[in-house]
Amino acid sequence: MKKILFFNTFSRREEEFVPLKEGHVGLYTCGPTVYNFAHIGNFRAYVFEDILRRTLKYFGYKVFQVMNLTDVDDKTIRGAISSNLKLNEFTEQFKKAFFEDIEILRIERAEVYPAATEHINEMIELIKTLEKKGFAYKADDNSVYFSVAKFANYGKLSKIDMQNQIAGVRIKADEYSKENTADFALWKAWDENDGDVYWDSPWGKGRPGWHIECSAMSMKYLGKTFDIHTGGIDNMFPHHEDEIAQSEAANEAKFVNYWLHCEHLLVNGQKMSKSMNNFYTLRDLLGKGFSGRQIRFLLLSTHYRKKLNFTMEICDKAGQTLENFDNFFRRLAFLTKQNSSGDDAKKITNEALDKFETGIAKDLNISESMAAIHFLTRETNKLLDAAMLSSKGAQNILDTFRKFDSILAVFDVDNATSFEIPDQIMKLVEERQNARKDKNYELSDILREKINSLGWLIEDTPQGPRIKEKKS
Ligand code: AMP
Ligand code: ZN
User: Fold this and answer.
1) What is the pLDDT of residue 181?
2) What is the largest CA-CA distance in the chain?
3) pLDDT at 420
4) pLDDT confidence of residue 418
5) Which residue's alpha carbon is nearest to atom 8 within ligand 1?
6) How far is the C-alpha of 397 from the C-alpha of 376, rounded, in Å?
7) Cβ-Cβ contacts under 8 Å for 19 (sequence gap 6 or more)
8) Quick one: pLDDT at residue 415?
9) Where would I find the H helices in 230-339?
């Protein structure tokens, strides 16, 4: 198995990936809060996680991925009340939209999508354990808080100096926290703003905090210690820090071996977010005529640890690049349908595939992997221009692109190449190509006329002849 390196946020270093169980990966990816349509900033995180998942699978690992759906919090409750719906009716529409969106973006499904509201008991049990072990306390407002000071290494992921924080600086740990301390809510007592949304618990009516959700659900599906936990960089603190504190305090075991965080998608230099009102949903962009794969391509083509500034121009550019690839595949497919002899392209495909794999295995270095793809395209075009590529070679190159695509999922090799041209037409096109090579333009024109009269159009492009059926 190829050696895979990941930049572990925990150590701030690249480390070789060694799973707990050989050949298997337990992966937890923080999921959406289903109170609205996700924006493409969120999808940058989900596309990064998809590339991670597909890369692990590519190198032979069996991946078990868990993504939670946050279907109860302040925002979902507010949304349900203002639209006069039950909480689950309100969130259902956005869960559905989320699954539609990830399909359009070619994001593979995780193995499980546990919803917070279906795991309240697990969360209550975990809070009870924390209370028993002295990490949690019930406050005057009947909410239960995690006592950050009791957890010796609080801040070890984000490297926040908690001594200073606790001493004076007010931090808002999450929407439920007491604002005058760094302690965060495990259980939030019901109040009238919550309408009919509450669960009974040993501490009275209420609902769980956000962080406890991920600790309880990851433990249920992946065990006390698991391999990889991911999210956007904004989730590192406080969310992931709080997950570590809760899980390690309760389980007395290491929570996660590798932490991977992706950088933000920006708009005019600022994080794309709902609160800044500078966001595009996937639906906004589809409405402007962009395609799902184009948006996916744009989101994945910058390394996940680099900031990416979104503009309509780079979206256009991503579409143009994919169209060029479509034409390239068509040109190759055309060659596979002929009986050409020549280079079998083994040398260039082996080299490109090796470079591609080396890049992606190095902390998902997409730039190196894309450079490998461009290398193959360049070398192929040279062979095509010199009429030196065999039909088998063309096939070989297309198959190599299919391999790239098992991770990238942006190339439409099959779509671009699934055209049927009758043998008779193929023969005439070949004859015409030979005539052109011999600079016999008179014959070439006669053959074009003949092809035309049989209902086919031939167009000479810098990438070679393109054949289309004439629409009657
Ligand atoms: P949220 O629904 O806010 O919890 O976000 C869901 C996921 O999207 C989390 O992993 C966030 O870190 C991530 N995320 C939110 N905004 C952005 C952004 N502008 N760029 C990249 N990731 C983001
Ligand atoms: Zn989470």
Assistant:
1) 65
2) 95
3) 76
4) 77
5) 42
6) 8
7) 25, 26, 61, 227
8) 84
9) 241-251, 282-287, 292-300, 312-336
pLDDT at 416: 77
Ligand 1 atom with minimal separation from the 265 CA: 20
pLDDT single digits (tens) 106-158: 999 999 999 999 999 999 999 999 999 999 999 988 999 999 999 998 999 99
Report the distance separating Cα 360 and Cα 395, nearest Å.
24
| Best mutation site among 40, 42, 105 for ligand 1 pocket (most ligand atoms within 8 Å of CB) | 42
Choosing from 76, 213, 235 the residue with most ligand 1 atoms within 8 A of its CB, the one to mutate for a pocket test is 235
pLDDT of residue 470: 76
**CA 42 – ligand 1 centroid, Å:** 4
Cβ atoms within 10 A of the Cβ of 118, count?
11
User: 36 in the Ramachandran plot: left (φ > 0), alpha (ψ -120 to 50) or beta?
Assistant: beta
Kind plus residue range of the DSSP H or E element containing 404: helix 391-408
Question: What SS3 class is residue 381?
Answer: helix
Ligand 1, atom 20, lies closest to the CA of 264
Atom of ligand 1 nearest to the CA of 33: 2
Neighbouring residues of 12: CB distance < 8 A, sequence distance ≥ 6: none
What 3-state DSSP class applies to 61? coil
> Residues lining ligand 2 (ion), CB within 5 A?
30, 214
Number of neighbouring beta carbons within 10 Å of residue 119: 20
Q: Can you read off the two tokens belonging to residue 174?
A: 């999450």
**pLDDT for position 167:** 43
Q: Cα(66)–Cα(314) distance, rounded to whole angstroms?
A: 32
**Residues with Cβ within 8 Å of residue 96, at least 6 apart in sequence:** none
Q: How far apart are CA 70 and CA 213, in angstroms?
A: 8
- For the chain, 472 residues long, the average pLDDT of each consecutive 10-residue run is 94 98 98 97 98 98 98 97 97 98 98 98 98 94 93 91 53 43 91 96 97 98 98 96 98 98 95 94 96 98 98 96 93 86 96 98 98 98 92 97 98 83 83 89 92 86 71 58
* Cα dihedral 161, 162, 168, 174 sign: positive
**79 CA → ligand 2 middle, Å:** 21
Ligand 1 neighbour 69 (Cβ under 6 A): no
Residues 455 and 443 sit within 8 Å (Cβ to Cβ)? no
* CB distance 232 to ligand 1 below 6 Å: yes
Would the CB of 272 count as within 6 Å of ligand 1?
Answer: yes
Q: Is beta strand 256-262 parallel, antiparallel or unpaired with respect to 226-232?
A: parallel
